[in-house]
TrEMBL record, chain A:
Gene (name only): gguB
NCBIfam families given in the database record: GguB (NF040906)
Source organism of this protein record: Agromyces allii
Cited function: Part of the binding-protein-dependent transport system for D-xylose. Probably responsible for the translocation of the substrate across the membrane.
Region (Disordered): 1-23
Superkingdom of the organism of origin: Bacteria
Keyword Hydrolase on entry: no
Subcellular location: Cell membrane
This protein's UniProt keywords: Cell inner membrane, Cell membrane, Membrane, Sugar transport, Transmembrane, Transmembrane helix, Transport
Protein name: Xylose transport system permease protein XylH
From TrEMBL, chain B:
Family matches, as Gene3D superfamilies: P-loop containing nucleotide triphosphate hydrolases
Gene: gguA_2
Protein name in UniProt: Sugar ABC transporter ATP-binding protein
Superkingdom, taxonomy of origin: Bacteria
Ranges for domain ABC transporter: 6-244, 261-507
This protein's UniProt keywords: ATP-binding, Cell membrane, Membrane, Nucleotide-binding, Repeat, Sugar transport, Translocase, Transport
Family annotation (InterPro entries): AAA+_ATPase, ABC_carbohydrate_import_ATPase, ABC_transporter-like_ATP-bd, ABC_transporter-like_CS, L-arabinose_ABC_transporter, P-loop_NTPase
Any one GO molecular function term: ATP binding
Keyword Nucleotide-binding: yes
Annotated source species: Agromyces allii
UniProt keyword annotation of Plastid present: no
PROSITE patterns in the record: ABC_TRANSPORTER_1 (PS00211), ABC_TRANSPORTER_2 (PS50893)
C-alpha cells in the first residue's frame, strides 16, 4: 500500500474554529460570568424568592427567629432531599421516605419512651431499622429488578401500615430532653446567655475562612494542572457575596438562640455527601449509571451493587429525618411524615436534578429544599391559605422542571 | 408511457458532513421483483427512506416518479396512501396485541357508531393470513409467534393497505432457512398477483432466486442495474466491493509476538430463546501485536460473540474457554474481563459506549476510576491531566476535556471511547465497528490509532461489516456466518471475493 496523507475533513475545519475563537478579553470574561450564572440559576432563584418574600412580608421573613425556623422547620426535608437526589441521579425514585420516617419515628418512641432505653441507643437502633428498610427495598430493586417506583410505592403502604401497628393506634410522646434536642436544641449556654451568641459568630467566621481557603486551594490546584479558571475579579466577587450571606445567616442565628442542632447534623451531611458524590468512586458510579446504565455496565461498574447501597443509604437518611421530626414534635404519631416524599422529590427536581437521571447535585437539592422552605414560610407569614400554597408550590415545581427540559433541548442533549 | 412503476432520478441526500446518496437513479418495472444490493452503509436504507417519505420531500434533491406521476411525500402516511409500503428490518409490531389488531393498527375497521367491528376485523385478518400462507388464529398475540411468522404478518398488514409496491429491507436477516424460503416463495406468489417488490438484501443466493433485476449501490452511488439473465454472484460482488483500496489505510508492518488470547469452543444462546444457538463453537486466537479481523454479514453473530466473551454481557447458556497468555481465565462479569485485560468498544457508541451527558474527562475515566483513587477520593486534577493528555495524543477535537461527549462528532466520540479503553490498560482490545458513522478523515485517524496499539504489543480484534476496511488494516481475518467461523485467512490470501464466499457459507444440512 502506498503512503497516503490523511484527508482534511469538515470536522477538523470546524474544530479549528472552536479552538481559536476570536479572543477578546472582556467578552471572554463576560461569557464566563454568564455561563457561571446560567449554571447557578438555582442560586439566583433562591435569592429571587427570598427578596420577593422579604418585600411582601415587610422584612419579617429575614428576622432572626424566622431565619432560624427556616432551618429547623425544614431540616428533615433537607435530610431527605440529600438521599433523594442521589436516588434520582441514578435514575430511580423513592416514594416511601415519608412512611419510613413515620415508621422509624414510631420505633424510636417505643425504644426511648416505652422501653426507656438511653437516647443514644434509641437513635442507633432507629437508624439501624432505617438501614434494614433500605436493605429490603434495595433487594427488590437491585437484585430482583422491580422498578423503584413500584417497590417504594409498596413500601409507602407497608411502612405506613407498620408505623400504625407499632404505635398501636396511639401517640407516643414526651421524649427525653437529649432526644428532643435533635429537632429543637441549640448549641448555646456554653458561654452563658448573651444578647448575641459569640459561639455562633465564631463558627460563622470559621466557616467563611474555611470556605475561602478551600476555594483558593482548588483554584490553585486547577491552575497548576493548566485548567481554565474563572476570572480573578469574578472569583473574588463570588467569594465576597457568599461570605456575606454566611455572615448574615450566622448573625441572624446568633441574635436568636444560636446554632440549631439540626443545622449541625445537616452541615455534616452536606459536607460528607458532597464529597461522596464529587470525589469518590461510588459517587462517580452513581452519575455514570444515571447517565447511561448500559455504558456503565459495559465499563465494569457493578450497577446492581450501587443501586442496592443507594437505597440502604436512603433508608438510613429517612430514619434520621424521622428522628428529627419526632424530636421536634416531641411526639411519634400516625400522621408523621405525610407528604415528605413529595417535598423531598420536589426539592431535588427544583434543585436541577434531571428526570432521566445522570444530573443533579447535593447542593442543588439543598437549595431546592430551601426554596420550598422560604415559599412555605413566606406564604404563611403573608397569610396565604393552605390551598393556594399548594397551588403555588405545584407551579414552582412544574416550572423548574420545564426550565430544565427546555435548557437541555436547547443545548442539544438527549 | 413506460412500463416502469417507479423511477427515482438523481436522488442526492446529504447529512451534516456526510453525503449518503449522490445522484442515485433507479428504475423499477411494474410487476417485477427488484433487488437492491450493496454493502452496509452503501446507502440502501437511506434510499428507501427517501422513497417512503421518512425523509420528506425537500430534504433531498432529485425526483421520484411513481405510476407516471411525480410524487412529493411528506411522511410515511403519504407514501402508504399511494400504495408504497416498507417493511423494515426491525419489525414494527406491537407484541402484546393480536395478529388482527396489528394488521389493522391505525387502519381500524369501524362498524356502526365508529366503534371497532371486531368480527369483521378478525374475519378480514384471516383472509389476509390465508393470502400470505400463515395458518394462525388472528386473535393470537404477536409475542406468541416466531419471527418468521411475524414477518408474514407484516406482509399481511401491507396487503391490507392495497399495496402496489412492497419494499422489504433485509427481510430474511433474522429468519431461519425454512422461513426464508417460505418468504421468498410468497414474494414470487405476490408477484403473480401483480404486486411489485423491492427487496434489499446481500444474500446473493436469494437474490438470484427471486430477483428479475438487481441494482447495485456503492458509496451512495448507483453502479449498475443488471438484468436477471446476466446476474452472477461474481459480478455483484465485484460491483459491491470494487473500490480503490489504496490511500485509505495507513501502512502497517506487523511485529507479532506470542499468543495473547485464545478462545476455544465458545458457544452462546439467545438470551430469550435459550434453544437458539447464536454463537456456535467459535475458536480463535490473537497474538501480541496482531490485528485480527472478524468479518460477517448482519446477523452472523459478531457482536453477540464479542459481548458474550466480554463479561457475558449478551446471551444465555454460554460455554467455552478463554486463555490469556496460555492461562485459562474466567470472564463472567465485565469487571472480571477488564481486570484480566480485555476491553470491548461497542458498535453502538451512543447507546452502550458513552455517557453523553457527561464530559470527555469523566467518560475516559469511567472504566478505571480505581486508578485515580487516592485515600478514598478521586484525584480530579489528575483526571483532568490524563484526559487532556488523551485529548492530545488521540487528537480529540474539542476546546477542552470539559465538553460533553454528546456534542462531539462521531469520530471524536469514538476517540473518547478508545481513550477510555486504552486508559484501562488492556492486553486485548475488541473493537466492534470502530469506524461506523465516521467520515473518511477520522477513519484514517482511527486506523492509525489501531496500528499504534498493535505496535505497542496489544492484541486487537476488529469486527467490521466493511470488508475493505478489514482487508486494509488486519493481519489475519476470520469469516463468521450463522454464528460459526467458516474460515480463517492470512491477509495475503484474503480477497473480497474469497471472504464474501466464506461469509455467506451456509450451515451444512
Amino acid at each position: 500500500m502506498s503512503n497516503p496523507t490523511p484527508v482534511p475533513t469538515t470536522e477538523s475545519i470546524q474544530a479549528g474554529g472552536n479552538v481559536n475563537p476570536p479572543s477578546n478579553k472582556f467578552t471572554d470574561r463576560l461569557s464566563h460570568v454568564l455561563a457561571d450564572l446560567g449554571k447557578n440559576g438555582i442560586f439566583i432563584a433562591l435569592i429571587a424568592v427570598v427578596v420577593l418574600f422579604a418585600i411582601l412580608t415587610d422584612g419579617i421573613l429575614l428576622r432572626p427567629q424566622n431565619i432560624s425556623n427556616l432551618v429547623v422547620q425544614n431540616g428533615y426535608i433537607l435530610v431527605l432531599a440529600i438521599g433523594m437526589v442521589m436516588v434520582i441521579i441514578a435514575g430511580h425514585i423513592d416514594l416511601s421516605v415519608g412512611s419510613v420516617a413515620a415508621f422509624v419515628g414510631a420505633c424510636s418512641g417505643v425504644f426511648a419512651v416505652q422501653w426507656g432505653l438511653p437516647w443514644w441507643l434509641s437513635v442507633i437502633l432507629s437508624l439501624g431499622i432505617g438501614a434494614l428498610v433500605g436493605v429490603w427495598q434495595g433487594f427488590w430493586i437491585a437484585f430482583v429488578g422491580i422498578p423503584a417506583f413500584i417497590v417504594t410505592l409498596a413500601g409507602m403502604l407497608i411502612f405506613r401500615g407498620l408505623a400504625l401497628v407499632v404505635l398501636g393506634n396511639a401517640n407516643i410522646g414526651s421524649f427525653p430532653a437529649e432526644y428532643r434536642a435533635l429537632g429543637n436544641g441549640f448549641l448555646t449556654d456554653l458561654f452563658g446567655e448573651f444578647e448575641i451568641d459569640p459561639l455562633t459568630l465564631g463558627v460563622g467566621a470559621l466557616a467563611i475562612i474555611i470556605l475561602i481557603v478551600q476555594q483558593v486551594r482548588t483554584r490553585r490546584g486547577r491552575q497548576k494542572y493548566g485548567q481554565d479558571v474563572e476570572p480573578m475579579a469574578w472569583f473574588v466577587i463570588k467569594l465576597v457575596l457568599i461570605s456575606a450571606a454566611i455572615g448574615f445567616f450566622a448573625y441572624s442565628l446568633a441574635s436568636y438562640k444560636g446554632i440549631p442542632i439540626t443545622l449541625i447534623i445537616l452541615a455534616v451531611l452536606i459536607l460528607v455527601y458532597g464529597v461522596v458524590m464529587n470525589r469518590t468512586v461510588f459517587g462517580r458510579h452513581i452519575y455514570a449509571i444515571g447517565g447511561n446504565r448500559h455504558a456503565a455496565e459495559l465499563s465494569g461498574i457493578k450497577t446492581r451493587r450501587v443501586d442496592f447501597w443507594l437505597f440502604v443509604n436512603m433508608g438510613t437518611l429517612a430514619a434520621l429525618a424521622g428522628l428529627i421530626f419526632t424530636a421536634r414534635l416531641n411526639l411519634a404519631g400516625p400522621k408523621a411524615g405525610d407528604g415528605f416524599e413529595l417535598e423531598a422529590i420536589s426539592a431535588a427536581f427544583i434543585g436541577g436534578a434531571a428526570v432521566q437521571g445522570g444530573v443533579g447535585t447535593i447542593g442543588g437539592a439543598i437549595i431546592g429544599g430551601l426554596i420550598i422552605g422560604v415559599l412555605n414560610n413566606g406564604m404563611s407569614i403573608i397569610g396565604l391559605g393552605i390551598e393556594w400554597q399548594q397551588v403555588v408550590k405545584g407551579l414552582v415545581l412544574l416550572l423548574a422542571v420545564a426550565f430544565d427540559v427546555y435548557n437541555r433541548r436547547r443545548s442539544g442533549g438527549r | 408511457m413506460t412500463t416502469n412503476i417507479l423511477e427515482m432520478r438523481g436522488i442526492t441526500k446529504t447529512f451534516p458532513g456526510v453525503k449518503a446518496l449522490s445522484n442515485v437513479t433507479i428504475e423499477v418495472e411494474r410487476g417485477e421483483v427488484h433487488a437492491i444490493c450493496g454493502e452496509n452503509g452503501a446507502g440502501k436504507s437511506t434510499l428507501m427512506k427517501v422513497l417512503s417519505g421518512v425523509y420528506p420531500h425537500g430534504t433531498y434533491d432529485g425526483d421520484i416518479v411513481f405510476e407516471n406521476e411525480t410524487v412529493e411525500f411528506k411522511d410515511l402516511t403519504d407514501s402508504e396512501a399511494k400504495g408504497i409500503v416498507i417493511i423494515h428490518q426491525e419489525l414494527a409490531l406491537s407484541p402484546y396485541l393480536s395478529i388482527a389488531e396489528n394488521i389493522f393498527l391505525n387502519n381500524e375497521l369501524k362498524g356502526r357508531g365508529g366503534l371497532i367491528d371486531w368480527n369483521k376485523t378478525n374475519f378480514e385478518a384471516s383472509k389476509l393470513l390465508a393470502r400470505v400462507g400463515l395458518r394462525e388464529n388472528p386473535t393470537t398475540k404477536i409475542m406468541d409467534i416466531g419471527v418468521g411468522k411475524q414477518q408474514l404478518v407484516e406482509i399481511a398488514k401491507a396487503l391490507s393497505k392495497e399495496v402496489k409496491l412492497l419494499i422489504l429491507d433485509e427481510p430474511t436477516a433474522a429468519l431461519n432457512d425454512e422461513d426464508s424460503d417460505h418468504l421468498l416463495d410468497l414474494i414470487l406468489h405476490l408477484k403473480g398477483q401483480g404486486i411489485t417488490s423491492i427487496i434489499i438484501s446481500h444474500k446473493l443466493n436469494e437474490i438470484k432466486k427471486v430477483a428479475d433485476s438487481v441494482t447495485v449501490i456503492r458509496d451512495g452511488k448507483t453502479i449498475e442495474t443488471i438484468a436477471k439473465q446476466e446476474v452472477t454472484e461474481d459480478r455483484i460482488i465485484k460491483d459491491m466491493v470494487g473500490r480503490d483500496l489504496e490511500h485509505r489505510y495507513p501502512d502497517h508492518t506487523p511485529n507479532l509476538g506470542d499468543e495473547l488470547l485464545r478462545v476455544e469452543d465458545w458457544t452462546a444462546h439467545h438470551p430469550q430463546d435459550a434453544n437458539r444457538v447464536v454463537v456456535d463453537n467459535v475458536n480463535l486466537n490473537v497474538r501480541a501485536g496482531e490485528i485480527v479481523g472478524i468479518a460477517g454479514l448482519m446477523g452472523a453473530g459478531r457482536t453477540e460473540f464479542a459481548m458474550s466473551l466480554f463479561g457475558q454481557s449478551y446471551g444465555s447458556r454460554i460455554s467455552g474457554k478463554v486463555f490469556l497468555r496460555g492461562k485459562e481465565i474466567k470472564t463472567r462479569t465485565v469487571s472480571e474481563a477488564i481486570a484480566h485485560g480485555i476491553a470491548y468498544a461497542t458498535e453502538d457508541r451512543k447507546t452502550f459506549g458513552l455517557n453523553l451527558i457527561e464530559d470527555i474527562k469523566r467518560n475516559i475515566s469511567m472504566a478505571s476510576l480505581k486508578k485515580l483513587e487516592k485515600f478514598g477520593l478521586v484525584h480530579d486534577n489528575e483526571e483532568y491531566k490524563i484526559a487532556t493528555e488523551f485529548k492530545q495524543s488521540m487528537n480529540i477535537k474539542a476546546p477542552n476535556v470539559l465538553v460533553k461527549t454528546g456534542k462531539l462528532s462521531g469520530g471524536n466520540q469514538q476517540k473518547v471511547v478508545l481513550s477510555k479503553w486504552i486508559y484501562s490498560d488492556p492486553d486485548v482490545l475488541i473493537l466492534d465497528e470502530p469506524t461506523r458513522g465516521i467520515d473518511v478523515g477520522a477513519k484514517y485517524e482511527i486506523y492509525t490509532i489501531i496500528n499504534r496499539l498493535a505496535a505497542q504489543g496489544k492484541g486487537i480484534i476488529v469486527i467490521s461489516s466493511e470488508l475493505p476496511e478489514l482487508l486494509g488494516i488486519c493481519d489475519r481475518v476470520y469469516a463468521l456466518s450463522e454464528g460459526r467461523i467458516t474460515g480463517e485467512l492470512p491477509i495475503a490470501e484474503a480477497t473480497p471475493e474469497s471472504m464474501l464466499k466464506l461469509m455467506t457459507m451456509e450451515k451444512p444440512r
